[in-house]
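Folding Problem: From Residues to Backbone Shape
Fields: amino acid sequence; protein backbone structure tokens
RECORD BEGINS BELOW THIS LINE
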Amino acid sequence: MDAVKEKIKQLASEYQPDIVAIRRELHAHPELSFNEFYTAEFIATILKDLGISFEQGVAKTGIVGIIHGKNPDKGTIALRADMDALPVLEQNDVVYKSKNLGLMHACGHDVHMSCLLGAARILNQIRDQFEGSIKLIFQPSEEKYPGGAKIMIKEGVLHKPDVRSILGQHVFPELEVGKIGMRSGKYMASTDEVFLTIKGKGGHAAIPDKVIDPVLITAHIILALQQIVSRKAKPTMPTVISFGGIQANGKTNIIPDEVKIEGIIRTFDESWREEIKQRISSMAKSIAESMGGSCDVFIDPGYPFLVNDEVMTERTRAHAIEYLGEDQVVDLDMRMTAEDFAYYSQLVPGCFYRLGVRNEDKGIVSNLHSSTFNVDEQSLELGSGLMAWLACKELMYLD
């Protein structure tokens, strides 16, 4: 495989300018979840030019391509990239700045698509060097419930042909360019969204004995719900309950009739996840009622926790070390952020790893989802080459 590895590195270097151009075009034209129409057409054009067969319109805007190697029926693995952008006003001063005002690829999905297209070009070029088939999944709506992965799975993306395993790559601004990060087992949390409507009786703020204050009730509920984390969660069960939205619509001297709050639940165990929901509902309602009000509870179920198959991830780590060197592959901690790649990883062996994009000398240090997020574009050469290499190596385990 040494000759294949060197060929992949050569092609990744040769194609780097084209991959950068693709990334910049995608970055300049961000689109929100399930509205990735320009993005889909752009990807389709590139796949068509490469002679790679594909299907459009999967989960509305998704694309699924296939590359057949020698003995294509031996088995199939998948490579996945997400497509959607975020409602963020970009503040970067770059020539490829977003042209869609108020929208931005602030989570690196432009990089994910570019790297997958680069890997596809490399793999298509060397398809006589591997056995089996590689499915290319360009997935819409990672950022919005219910998640494009769930819908693509429902529409059969893991079948015809059946996918044996799947790889996903995500940018990581905490990791310097040239490095990648991995973690076996549980890696990213499940996510649910919590919506509470606390109802009372509004009135003049200077006459509190004449009202049932939903603002005060809300304060008690928010504080009390943190006891689920501090008093009920086991030390081995990382848990987050956070509320980021509060809408009261009162004034300095007006107590409103109701308050709406919204937040998230994050954890790593499905039975505990369900218990949290029940505790939130029971506690919020009883607290409100004890203070003379009421509380309506709606919890919108989100993505499951993301688990990296331990056997697959350990061999992927070994393959990455072959490609990059041991010093360039680092271990990652569990994260309370969420990813709908989890839907794939719950059904087939998966490995979701991180691509370093940070470069402090160039001032590229901003976090994901920020208005100044950017990447060192040298990461595109590594991202596309490594993905192609990992795919070739993973195909060897189809027997």
User: Anything to note?
Assistant: The chain has a mean pLDDT of 97. The chain is about 35% helix and 25% strand. The two ends are 17 Å apart (CA to CA).
